[in-house]
Task: structure prediction
Amino acid sequence: MPFLELQDIKTHFTLRKGMLAGKTTHTVKAVDGVNLTIDHGKILGLVGESGCGKSTLSRTIMQLIPATSGAVILEDENLSDLHHRDVRAKRLDFQMIFQDPYASLNPRMTVFSTLAEAIKQRHPKLKGEALDHKIAELMERVGLDPRFIQKYPHEFSGGQRQRIAIGRALAPEPKLIIADEPVSALDVSIQSQILNLLLDLRKDLGLTMIFISHDLSVVRYIADHIAVMHAGKIVEYGDADEVFNNPQHDYTRKLLEAIPHIDKVV
Ligand SMILES: Nc1ncnc2c1ncn2[C@@H]1O[C@H](COP(=O)(O)OP(=O)(O)O)[C@@H](O)[C@H]1O
Ligand SMILES: [Mg+2]
Result:
């Protein structure tokens, strides 16, 4: 049984076309019939150029936007059938990491408050020493010195901020992490540190992960399997090395040719 199964997911947006056009509408097929499975403890790399539908697919999986059709099955349960109250509880099981940690972290909250709030989603009654201990443990796990616990996001570097965001994602003890371009805004030297942290977390915590990037070399470094997305559809899927070394689809070859720093990341 796969951990997560996407069955023919379509997410279409209907847009009104201009004021004078009146009722004419235009449909953007952001995700247009995606079938994928992910096994427990594996990292699926989702790659494709900007605008191909990667973020829309991740928000559809998270039930943040409704699918137009299709089903998201998590451990045998169809998330699309759940009542919205149950979805909220379920959402603790999957957490997201975004490209820009500065935008996704609250600038007025210290590391302590950010992590405390996230831990309390799962353990609402945790406080005092037990909470302090959990926060320190979480900081160490993501490679942050617990002495920085009372600092604010602007006092950290970009890589450290992404570590805070990763800590916050881990705090509710999720089973699935969706990382949407988590290293795209970081220097190449910092990128590999964050990728290695995610690999350690997978190994130590048995997390399942969807790792999204427009950069095939980054995805190849971290993923077990790669799905190549183009115009809302998966055009190629396979073992990561296989897709990288022996791409079958023209579009995958184009993505490979677009990599300027193929040797730098690894
Ligand atoms: N809320 C929305 N309303 C209308 N169109 C959208 C919306 N969100 C995304 N899109 C469109 O869907 C397509 C896919 O976008 P997105 O999922 O953000 O791609 P990616 O993450 O791969 O860059 C784009 O054409 C984008 O303009
Ligand atoms: Mg995106």
